[in-house]
Design brief:
- The chain is mostly helical and 109 residues long.
- It has one domain.
- The protein has helices at residues 6-18, 22-31, 36-78, 85-108.
- The protein is rod-shaped and about 65 Å long.
């Protein structure tokens, strides 16, 4: 990511916001006067950028899920709220598992 030109970052955010396909990106770059080799290089950088963003989102989801699971475990073991024992055991654990699985999906997609 260190080799990414700041102007490319502006292109990347614009393309992500407009949800461009690879063909649309290629046509946009050729309209702006880039040569074919440079277009291919920029498209590869864009794909790496999107992959890195998905991986980051996935790791964040996994960390949040792990923290929710740990909190669920601590609440259950310490029995801080006895009337919410079932929610702590089943509800928070289910939420934690869901977040971890969602994070794994983003990372391994």
């Amino acid at each position: 990511m260190s080799e990414m030109n700041p102007t490319y970052h502006e292109f990347f955010s614009q393309w992500s916001h407009l949800d461009y396909s690879v063909e649309q990106i290629e046509a946009d770059l050729q309209d702006k006067g880039f040569i074919k080799e440079k277009v291919d290089e920029i498209i590869q950088l864009y794909k790496k950028h999107r992959s890195a963003a998905k991986s980051t989102r996935g790791f964040v989801c996994m960390v949040i899920g792990a923290l929710v699971g740990f909190t669920s475990c601590m609440f259950t073991l310490l029995d801080i709220f006895p009337e919410m024992r079932e929610f702590n055991m089943v509800g928070l654990t289910s939420i934690a598992i869901g977040l971890v699985v969602l994070g794994c999906y983003y990372v391994f997609e």
